[in-house]
Amino acid sequence: MSPPTIDQIKDAGDGIDIIWHVRLNGGKEILKSESYPKDGTVTECPRKDGRDGHQRSIATLVRGTLHIKSVQGDPYAAMFHDRFGLSTRGNRLRIEHKLQLMLQDVAPVRYVTIWSRMRDGDDDTDGLDVLNSGMGASVGTSHGGD
After folding, report:
1. Whose CB has fewer CB within 10 Å in the chain, the N or C terminal residue?
2. CATH assignment of 5-145, given 1.10.10, 1.10.3470, 2.40.128, 1.10.8?
3. What pLDDT digit, counting tens, does each position of 24-46 carry?
4. Confidence bin at 146 (pLDDT 50/70/90)
C-alpha cells in the first residue's frame, strides 16, 4: 500500500472533513473520508491501512497547525500523529506524518508531504482543493512530495 494522499480538506461548519486517496497493494484505489469535530470530540474513522474496522481520532488546532492523533487496534495496532500547517501566504501545505506500531523495539516512521498551490493556467485535473479552516486560506496543488 502506498502512503495516502489528500484529495480535499474542507471546513464543514462544525467540523473538518478530509478525503484521502489510497492506492492499495495490487493497484486498487479507494477514497476514504474522515470528519473531525472542531470541539475536540473523539471520533471513529476508517483504518488508514484499508482493513475493516476503525481508528479513534481527535483533531485540535494549536497555534495555526491542525493536529490529528489516532489509534487503531489489532491487527497492526498503531498510533498516528498528522500535523497540517499552511504557509503564511497560503501557497504551501506541509503535512508531517508519524506512525508508531505498538510493538516492542519498533522505531516510529516519520515523513513529510508538501503540497504547493496550482499556478494560474495549470490544466492538471488532479489538483488538490483545500479549505483549511482556522488557517484562512484555500490551496490547490498539482503535485505532492513524500
Report:
1. C
2. 2.40.128
3. 778 888 888 888 998 889 999 88
4. very low
DSSP state of 91: S
Cα–Cα separations (whole angstroms), residue 111 to 14, 37, 53: 29, 25, 25
Q: Note if the bond before 4 is cis, omega within 30 degrees.
A: no
User: Could you tell me the end-to-end alpha-carbon distance of the chain, in angstroms, rounded to an integer?
Assistant: 14
> Please, are residues 18 and 4 in contact by the beta-carbon 8 Å criterion?
no
- What confidence score (pLDDT) does residue 116 get? 82
Nearest to 132 by CA among 8, 9, 21: 9
Length of the chain: 146
